[in-house]
Design a protein that fits this description.
single chain, Rossmann fold, 2 domains, 3-stranded antiparallel β-sheet, 11 helices
Length: about 400
Amino acid sequence: MMVARRFRGVVARVGALLASGVFGNRLPPFLVLALAMDISAACSPPEVILPPTREAQACARDCIGIRNSCNSWSMGTRGCDKQLHDCRLTCPGAREEDPGAREEDTAGSAESTRMRLTVAGLPTPAAPSELLPPPGQIARPRAVAVVVGVEKYRRDLPPASGARADAELFAQHMETGFGLSRANIHLLIDSDATKSSIDAELEEWLPRNVSPSDDAFFFFAGHGAPDPQSGERYFVPWDADTKFIATQAIPVAKATQRLGALHAAHVFAFMDSCFSGAGGRSVLAPGTRPLVLQRTPLRIAVPKLALFSAAGPDEITGAAGAHGLFSSYLFRGLHGAADSNGDGAVTYGELVDYVVAHVPDDARRENRDQHPQASGASARDVVLTRARGK
């Protein structure tokens, strides 16, 4: 048993120290604490591994909701963890994995005893039910998606609050609602979202894997930035230094040109960033101010590309709970709120109309302006998701 193995390992280490005589007849306080921590870790429940099925995903989301509402003050953290562990074991196809059975060099690490809150290889975000993807009946086995979320940056930049949760939940929508194969969804979070990694996805992986008869998707949540001299817009990857924005960030115009050149039926890009340099998910190098203020919307002269961005050129983005305001309404719309004609399907046009109608009102209540911008009129009738049974 895992606990027995871990306990024997602890006893052996303590016995060796006592036998050496370095501590005399008493254990020092730091060793007592280490022993207690090791035994505590040994008592942690095994990991629960779930199969890549929609039923398991739905069950896992319910269990995470139970864990998040658990009163740790009354039950204690271990009681809450056990509650989640027992709940997940009831999910279809669940099995336990003994972390102690892994390689010996990881047996004492925190990673080896922490339960993974992942299903089907993608994170399962703890989000309100109205934001989660409903199981859909569309299958896009050849469609591809690159999903990027940068919340914490390597350099001294403020966090883009909610960007990680936005990207993780969008990836779930891609798989569960849009019907993409999990292998065709590349999710880059924080330190994985370097400039070279994003460039490689746009320049190599997407063109090589896209199908002319199916769709391609791109999502970016994180900071945007303007060039203080020219006003050119940039995505800010995890490793960028805003003092060298022109060489260390990704020009939006270049990224959209790459996306528009893909040999796909349709290409959709969603950007929860802003480029005004005035705050929100927009940054500048310390001590600088934009000399060229953004006054014109982002113009995309690529007929195949449908681009939906979070804010106007001189506006800042806002938040809604754990997500960006734009992403929050994006997810609500995809969940079904954007289905204006009640046919069970959400088209790109319906999604745009729903988000554009709601984001400005919420922003005004926060005493600011935010008007999402959309292009791609030719894609308005493309069905993005369709609820099962409709």
